[in-house]
Amino acid sequence: MEPEKGVSALEVAAKAISNMKLGRIDDETTANIGVINGGRATNIVMDKLDMKAEARSHDPQKLEDEVAHIEKCFEDAIAERKLDDEDLPRLEVNRKDDYKAVQMSRG
Length: 107
Known about the structure:
Blueprint: H1 9-18, E1 23-26, E2 29-38, E3 49-57, H2 60-81
Antiparallel strand pairs: 1-2, 2-3
Helix pairs in contact: 1-2
């Protein structure tokens, strides 16, 4: 009934994503957002959004830095839209480390 009082998960995510370094970060590091799902109807404020992102690097510290950068972009966007009387919006991160960095020498 009062959409101006809601917080759009899509709006928060868009703000966060617009501040991210994505694609090729450097010669060892890449980051990408590949999947975004959310919403239940066209006439409501999107209250939840699920996103899948990936960061890769041959350097473990650069990987940690990129993951921290992505999370900070979300935290900053959330802080801008925080409602005084509620614990919304909020971020939930489910991190999965698939592979450890491997460097091989030629020779």
